[in-house]
Amino acid sequence: MNSLRALARRAEGDTAHMVAAVVLIGSPGVGKSSVLEELATLHDIEAIEHGAIESEQLSLGRPLLPASSWIRQLETVLSLQRDAGRRRFLLSATVVSAEDLAALRKATAAELLLVVCLSASPETVAARIDAREPDRWPGKAPLIARARALASSTPRLPGIDVVIDTEQRVAQDVAAEILEAMRRRGMLGSH
Question: Which of 29, 26, 79, 74 is nearest to 53 (CA)?
């Protein structure tokens, strides 16, 4: 029923009341946090109302929470944000399976949804993580190994709308490309 209402509103050109979400996925080290921050800044510059959430914060700790736990938490947070009047969300997440991505897509409850997979080579994500994480952290080597594997598998997940290579690009340029994709899809509404 929501999707029928959304189609009717969209056909009438009314996207202002629709829930829109951009979900940035990709392996650790691909640039999700940096791009999310730049995308939020571009929204601020254009005075576009939004909420920005880095979902990794919901899983941090020892042990990391599985996707089934943090996705449920994210769904609740987004519901509370919608209750507070927010209608546009910028999200980042690390998903490892098609099931995780499907659950994440559903958790957004977005009528307009854009899933962007940021990608880079296994060597690049490993080098970025090696440069940013302290050597004393015991999780560094396992994170690098996980990032290498996800760098190859994540871009092949079903349910991705756009794949953007971050290998030789700065976060600001990637964010500008995503903002333009949002504009083309009618996700920015009137602001």
Answer: 74
